[in-house]
Amino acid sequence: MDLRESIINQTDVALGLTKKLLQTEGKQSNLVYSPLSIHVVLSLIAAGSKGPTQDQLLSFLKSKSADHLNSFAAELVSVIFSDGSPSGGPQLAFANGVWVDKPLPLKPSFKQVVDTSYKAALAQVDFQTNVSSQTLCPVVSIICIKDL
Fold this sequence. Notes:
There is one protein chain. β1, α5 and β2 form a beta-alpha-beta unit. The protein is an alpha+beta fold. The protein has five helices and three strands, in the order ααααβαββ. α2 (about 35-50) runs antiparallel to α3 (about 50-60) and α2 (about 35-50) packs across α4. A three-stranded mixed β-sheet has the order 2-1-3. The chain has one domain (about 5-145): 2-Layer Sandwich (Antithrombin, Chain I, domain 2), CATH 3.30.497. The chain is globular, with a radius of gyration of 17 Å.
């Protein structure tokens, strides 16, 4: 994996999303969003999909393969989970998770990718009969900056 190329592609996708959002939703109102969170969510979906769905996600994310995305995510996570910069600058914390409806089977390979590459929580929950504030979470990925 060429990290520089991955960063350039991720930046290109983020700028494309930003342009589209500013031309639509952001035209008449304030807008806050996290391009990295969107990239991670779509990468996780690509890791768990196949066929035309995966092909479309890879094309949108400008990536050669799901493995390439997973390697890029693992590299990002290792930087994000570090103890901050040597100069004592801000520390970035990144939390993400995947909640899947219990009846849906999960492949062990997907569980492994979520755990090792994305360092994400993975839980199967009963969305049909056990709907509570603890099982429904509208935010899949959250970015926060600490110690500013």
